[in-house]
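re: ur question from the group chat, yeah i did fold both. here u go
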Amino acid sequence: MGLHEGDLAPRGRSSSNEGGSDLLVVTAKVAGFGRPLRVLVDLGASKNYARRQTMAENARLLAQACARDRGLISVRLATGVVATVKKVEVDLRVAFVDFDSVERFTVLDMDERFDLIL
């Protein structure tokens, strides 16, 4: 998976046989980040999620988001575990293929497979 020279079109989609389903993964340009981010497009996700370690690459954005007190949030992870964490949200401009939009993401500790879940 990657970008064609000079555009945002993915070369294809990554697939996984985990659980017998294919995963749609794209590489996207995200405002405020110096590198393309790996995005899982999950039509079943109830919200958008951002990996905390990736958000730390834009320290000012993460610090501003953490400074706002939005209480706690409980999230059921893919493993089935329910995690209750401080609710931290960021608005990010995400662009890939014909998609270009500002979306709100809840920041979570996630593994390194994906930077964003959209």
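okk and heres the other one u asked abt
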Amino acid sequence: MNKRFLCTKLEIKLILCLILSFVIAVGIFFLLSQIGENILDNYFNKISFVSNQKRQAISDFKKYISDNNLTINDHDKITQWVRKEKYINIYVYKENRLIYSYNINNPDTGSNISQESPIIFSNEALSDIKFNDVNAKIYMECFFEYKYYYIIVFLMLQLHFCAL
């Protein structure tokens, strides 16, 4: 009977140790993730990384338009380019009216532009682009920094699973 009592007492201690080590591991994971995110935030704020990436993406999009002789109505090909780039949304305006938006024209969402929307961005945020049939303006939303945040999270997960 006394031996049975010792086993349960030992089992309880082991369970408590496992719970404590799990809590410590989760705490360290969140601490390191927060440190990594803060480092990335400081890096992105100090340099013009995002604006440089956006300029490069606009240049690449203009090259794609000219190389493939796209017209403003080639929504499928524009959508294909945006999907390939992953971290970009594009809004195409012709005469201050929204003609194309990846979010709206995306067949996965099942919606199309039924009525052209007025321009909602300032002229400084818009870039001129020449399609094969017409000149237009684009606004590009870029989310390049998110891939680095994902890398931080995956590295922290890998570090913790390897440490276990």
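fwiw on the second one: The radius of gyration is 26 Å. Residues 49-144 form one domain. idk if thats what u expected
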